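May I ask for a single protein's sequence together with how it folds?
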Amino acid sequence: MYKPDYLMMTPGPSIVRQNVMERRAEFFGNPDLDEDFFKFYDKLAEKTAKIFGCKKESMIFMSGEGMVGLDSACASLTEPGDRVLVIENGLFGAGFADMVKPYGGEPVTLSFDTKRKIDIEKVKEFLEKDSNFKFATVVHCDTPTGVLNDVKEICRLLKSKGILTVVDTVAAIGGEHFNAEEFGADIALGGSQKCFSAPPGITMLSVSDDAWEAIKNRKTPIASFYCNLSYWENCVEKKLFPYTMPSSDLMGFDTAVDNILEEGIENLVERHHKTAEYCREGLKKLGLKLYLEDDFSSTVTAFYVPDGFIVNGFIKKLKDEYKIFIGGSYGPYADKVLRIGHMGESAKIEYIEKTLTAIKNILEK
């Protein structure tokens, strides 16, 4: 039996349920040649599409952590000289600029306060002056701070200007409402290790008809093989994947998707919202200061390291003495912020209560 060494309350990877681990150990067959595997993949796409809010033909599963999906979206859409609008209020949002440049794109970054969501009115004002962009990028939940952006309104605004949209919802989908077709997200990206509560290793994408048209009507070849989304079009019908599929990873992910659908997507989102609120209120009762001023994600809570502690020392003490593992952060927040992940299987009141009690004990000592 799978026995974790500690309670994993990091902002991804999240806790993995026993039935997911057991499914990964089953016979996986030959995904290159076995027709049954293509049927399995097709069914998995149909189920996952319900979570993404798209049709099954839009779904792609790639071998690799969520970053592979982000890179693939940029590689497949960007041609030399394309202007790309990078809308950001955090580390991962800003990072899209570095993904566009290697493919010859010209990123234009529109930055916002990292302690609040992206200001839609200011985006409108910007686009009134300049809307000559092939596509724009935005992050649903920027994980280093846990800020939540209104990607529905942002995508709709961009689409009204004829701009394609790439949405990183890796740390939000499943814990927040998301619907690719309703929102108008042309490429949406998720990762197996967040709210899906499967081990890291699978990135999934929904690709709209407009995005497919842009990919197929490029004037220049896509400057990548592994990150070339054009190879994935109709791969089930063709019975040909670009490379050998990670069968065991996908089988475990399939069970994780079943777990979500069994609970119900709306129920899952509601559980995340209640758990996140409980976590924030609990931290404030302990006298700890949250990083954000507003617009909190329901999947991760960031708070300032308590006085008298350093980030790594606090994390180590919690892990060594109480067998609870939380996260630090990155970039400008690395020495300031601690993060509790409440996503997927980790988004449970009893886990947050246990974590808060341990933090309280450390503070009192």
User: Anything to note?
Assistant: The CA atoms of residues 35 and 239 lie 8 Å apart. The two ends are 35 Å apart (CA to CA).
